[in-house]
Amino acid sequence: MLVRQGRPEVDAGRQCISNPTPKAQSEGLRLGVQAFDLKMIRKAASLILLLALIACSNALTQSAYLDGQERFYIEWEYTDTNITILARVNTTGWFGIGFSSNGGMAGADIITASVVNGTALLQDRYAEKNGYPAVDNSQDVELLFGSEVDGVTTIKFTRKHNTCDDKDRIVGTDTMRVIYAISPDGTDNLSYHTPYSRGAKSIYLRRKFVAKPAMPDDAFTYEIKANDVEIDAYHTMYHCQLKRAPKFSTKHHLIKVEPLIEEENKGLVHHVVIYACYDAVDREHYFDGNNTSFDCLVQANMPPDVYSCKTPITVWGVGGGPMYYPEEAGFPFGDEDSPDYIVMEMHYDNPQLLSGRRDSSGFRLTFTPTLRKYDAGILTLGAVHGIAIPPKVKDFTSSGFCTNTCTQRIALNTHESKFGE
């Protein structure tokens, strides 16, 4: 196995990456076969391949499918300075992966890869507009491994979070739009990918991991799942289901929330939210008529007494994992203020317009009857009806206003101001 790529140099003082020589990009790795006999060459080749396979076999800490057809799979992990990504793609041709501000190609930082005659190729590129991405003069990616086996191309590479290259995007600590493209004809010639061979996914690449707290001996779980939802062959779909809330004879604390995303639909489920209905409205007639599922992309599709359930209890988005409440707090269930009903909102992102897919993803909730010191709560801030940012503006301010009716309900201990006046 041969690898070819540009090898950037690091300026330790600035921690920025200088431009490699064009020769480094074009020559790649050469083996001086004249110095070895055939037996030694075979042993060396076997050793190189074995070491490469070992280096690639260790799974990285996080993973995701970028597409609904599960053709583009990635694993990744990061350090204080670098991110390492392994891409495993169902193709015998080229593929591309990149970072974008809005999920589009214009302005994106792009990396293209392929394996040609056993040689792995990796190039750092950028796109100033929708079209053929240009090769970056500063090759800021380091190829670690590459192979093509049984129609699957695997590439592993690393790069700095901040390369100090204005053609590269910084891999920050917020959610990023990861874009991808796959050769439509299985060839290694970089060409137009067609609308059905590309897409984008929002991923929290630098999600911080915390130590998993031990669960108490009396903890138990309760699962809330979608009821075999048929996913529309449409770019985006919001599906809401009314459900009865967990009921207990005494007060309990919710202490852990774990997403249960079906493996075959990890490329389609974008986010899941559970809202509580904090009122005394009887909604049993929806269950009597087996009418608990709604298209909730727009308000008009939902009954008012279902749409009014807008207090979030928990939420999951792409790149997220289990959520643990602080050891001194839990979200209360089972007391007189607990909700009788909840609404689970599922958002499906289906840019390939796949049909015939069904989903029963959801959450596993962990409760304990042993109450913690504090009741946890959720404070939601922001614009209620979404944020519309005008095009081509240099900056934009989104404002939200709380009336005194709202702020009087907030218990805030402060000597500087008094809410509600």
What labels describe this entry?
mainly beta; seven-stranded mixed β-sheet; 421 residues; Jelly Rolls; 37% strand; Immunoglobulin-like; disordered N terminus; six-stranded mixed β-sheet; 27 strands; 2 domains; single chain
TL;DR of this structure?
The protein is mainly beta and 421 residues long.
CATH class of the largest domain: Mainly Beta
Radius of gyration using CA atoms only: 26 Å
Shape: elongated
Give unreliable regions as ranges.
1-14, 17-57, 412-421
Helix content: under 10%
**What structural category characterises the helix and strand content?**
mainly beta
Overall mean confidence score, pLDDT: 81
Domain count: the total is: 2
Number of strands: 27
CATH topology of the largest domain: Immunoglobulin-like
Strand content: 35-45%
Intertermini distance: 72 Å
The CATH architecture of the largest domain comes to Sandwich
Major beta sheet, specifics? Answer: 7 strands, mixed
What is the count of helical runs? Answer: 5
Description:
The protein has 421 residues and is mostly beta strands. It folds into two domains: 2-203, Immunoglobulin-like (Sandwich), CATH 2.60.40; 220-375, Jelly Rolls (Sandwich), CATH 2.60.120.310. It is built from five helices and 27 strands. It has helices at residues 22-27, 38-57, 284-288, 304-307, 404-407, and strands at residues 2-4, 9-11, 16-18, 62-65, 72-78, 82-89, 95-100, 109-116, 119-126, 134-135, 142-149, 152-160, 176-182, 198-203, 220-225, 229-231, 236-244, 252-260, 269-277, 293-295, 311-317, 323-324, 329-333, 341-349, 357-359, 362-368, 374-375. The strands form six sheets. Strands 1, 7, 8, 9, 10, 13 and 14 form a seven-stranded mixed sheet that branches. A hairpin with a 3-residue loop joins strand 5 and strand 6 (82-89). The longest helix has 20 residues, at 38-57. It is elongated. The termini are far apart.
